[in-house]
Specification:
Layout: E1 4-8, H1 12-23, E2 28-32, H2 35-44, E3 49-53, H3 61-71, E4 77-81, H4 86-94, E5 99-102, H5 107-130, E6 136-139, E7 142-145, E8 150-153, E9 156-158, H6 162-173, E10 178-180, H7 181-188, H8 197-211, E11 221-224, E12 228-231
Function: This protein is a positive regulator for the phosphate regulon. Transcription of this operon is positively regulated by PhoB and PhoR when phosphate is limited.
Keywords: DNA-binding, Phosphoprotein, Transcription, Transcription regulation, Two-component regulatory system
GO molecular function: phosphorelay response regulator activity; transcription cis-regulatory region binding
Amino acid sequence: MSKKVLIIEDDPDIADLLQIHLRDLDMQLDCAEKGPEGLKKALDNDYELVILDIMLPEMDGLEVCRRIRERKRSLPILMLTAKSEEFDKVLGLELGADDYLTKPFSIRELIARIKSIIRRVNSLKEETKQKDEPVTLEFADLKIDMEKRKVTLKGKTIELTAKEFDLLALFASHPGKAYTRENLLNIVWGYQFSGYDHTVNSHINRLRAKIENDPSNPTYIKTVWGVGYKFAEEEDIKD
């Protein structure tokens, strides 16, 4: 079955180029030139991927990304920009982008990134279906529904971004296993993004603020000094 992809790009030459090559991959395409138009399409339709330019008329891509994430936490987003400043890259990742490509880019690189994102999403879905372990992981007051991507704490739903959920799901699936920040970047973001360890730190801090009774003395997500982070082993988590 072909994948449905939304392209939000105001440069007609780039938009046309994307459409030509993505149709060769048997993808169904929708396009939008302005931020508000693209946001509405993203929220009103089901897509496998959104390709989102940062510099857009009326509403920039960072704001579009933020608003998509408020409603569709697991929808993959690949951001494009003519800028190369670290600020844009970090902010795009902070807002929940799955990948980031700087213009000018090669079509081969773009297609490789798109295939990587879709492959990673499909792999996660298949892994969830095939696991013998329960779809819902439970640790004291914390429940993680892997299939529905839903987290509850003391019976109340906790709203997580896509990357916050991916981090928590990875940790909770492997209690006691320590991950370096580079490990987490590679696994959760799906490609090498060395030098952005602070992105992991900020995601961990926000995740702790949402699921820990005392983020400064966490029950679930522990710091492993000199290494990175781990999820507490089950026998160490108290009801």
